[in-house]
From TrEMBL:
The chain crosses the membrane at residues 39-60, 108-130, 151-173, 193-219. Keywords: Bacterial flagellum biogenesis, Bacterial flagellum protein export, Cell membrane, Cell projection, Cilium, Flagellum, Membrane, Protein transport, Transmembrane, Transmembrane helix, Transport. Belongs to the type III secretion exporter family. It is a multi-pass membrane protein. The keyword Magnesium does not apply. It comes from Crassaminicella thermophila. GO terms for cellular component: plasma membrane. The keyword Cell inner membrane does not apply. This is Flagellar biosynthetic protein FlhB. InterPro entries: FlhB, T3SS_substrate_exporter, T3SS_substrate_exporter_C.
Length: 362
């Protein structure tokens, strides 16, 4: 008979668990965030060409003025190639390029900034600037070379190139009948006509690229989550480190204390009587013969907590009785939620009897 031995430790290192908040925070601090650059590129392309369409008349007007200035300068052929004329031509060219380029560059910058903020938020980190030796490790590089990631990136580039090529080809073919009219156009009309074709192709390509970018975003999200996955052992180690942190333990205890205090104060209105020191101790007692075999302590406190118990009691018309010895005895001998011990039955019974008489009077 053959026995199959399975080493369960081999599965301990498999990254099958979702990343913890601590792991996600650390990854973000190191610059490892979920972001699709395809979305940035596609939206920048869309808005850039859209701005070009909106400002078509603006571009046409500036090109017209520039061309007129060039031809006016050419009328005086004697001074055409002088240093002064060349300088003027250079200045006019720089001004034209500025007027043409600034709106496009400004649009691309603003859209890119907004896209990055929508995906990543505000993130300042210098850790990604420092070199990681694991990145230049030849073994890791060899693994990446034979991984699926380069193939996927190549496939994405091929799809984008094919989509843009098809859009360009199909649109140019539709306009081919009208292109013969270029022969009857002047230079400015040709520039405007070709510019309009370019913008229309750009807008159509941008819309298709946005659809591809959305698909890429979900792929990047899957890849990001896969890279952040943790093994069960890593989660255990992180838990040990977190629980071992004195500050974390202190915060947990403080949170537990606040929750316990809140629950205790909610029970004060249910009490039959508050027995006080009167300034240092306060104990809330309830006795329901149908539910309990003996009086039970609903809340207790010292100093500020005692004052808070009395304030809540007054707000809810719970009777407050001063009995120094009994208040101290119950405070030190009985925990919250426990019954009064037999040796205090007589004293507590007398207080409850007094309270019931007062309630019957009123």
């Amino acid at each position: 008979m053959f026995f199959l031995r399975i080493n369960l430790q081999a599965f301990a290192g498999e990254k099958t668990e979702k990343a913890t908040p601590k792991k996600r925070k650390k990854a973000r601090e190191e610059g490892q965030v979920l972001q699709s650059r395809e979305i940035n590129s596609a939206l920048i392309l869309l808005f850039t060409f859209y701005v070009m369409r909106l400002m078509g008349s603006y571009y046409y007007r500036n090109i017209t003025v520039f061309t007129k200035n060039i031809f006016l300068g050419m009328k005086n052929s004697e001074n055409l190639f002088t240093a002064n004329e060349i300088h003027k031509l250079f200045i006019l060219t720089v001004i034209l390029l500025g007027k043409m380029v600034v709106p496009i560059v400004g649009t691309a910058f603003v859209v890119g900034l907004i896209c990055s903020y929508m995906q990543v938020g505000i993130l300042f980190t210098t850790k990604s600037l420092f070199p990681k030796f694991s990145r230049i490790n030849p073994i890791n590089g060899f693994k990446k070379f034979f991984s699926l990631k380069p193939l996927i990136e190549f496939f994405k580039s091929l799809v984008k190139l094919s989509a843009v090529g098809y859009i360009t080809f199909s649109y140019v073919m539709k306009q081919s009948k009208n292109m013969i009219n270029i022969l009857d156009m002047d230079i400015l009309q040709i520039v405007g006509y070709l510019g309009n074709i370019t913008v229309n192709i750009g807008l159509r390509a941008a819309i298709v690229l946005i659809i591809l970018a959305i698909l890429d975003y979900y792929y990047q999200k899957w890849e990001y989550e896969k890279d952040l996955r943790m093994s069960k052992q890593e989660i255990k180690e992180e838990y040990k480190q977190t629980e071992g942190d004195p500050q974390v333990r202190s915060k947990i205890k403080e949170k537990q204390r606040q929750m316990s205090m809140s629950r205790m104060m909610q029970d004060v209105p249910k009490a039959d009587v508050i027995i006080t020191n009167p300034t240092h101790y306060a104990v809330a007692i309830r006795y329901d013969s149908k539910l309990e075999d003996a009086p039970v302590v609903l809340a207790k406190g010292k100093d500020l907590i005692a004052q808070k118990i009395k304030e809540v009691a007054k707000e809810n018309n719970v009777i407050i009785i001063e009995n120094k010895m009994l208040a101290r005895g119950i405070y030190f001998a009985v925990d919250i939620g426990d019954y009064i011990p037999p040796d205090l039955y007589q004293a507590v019974a007398e207080v409850l009897a007094y309270v019931y008489r007062i309630k019957n009077i009123y």
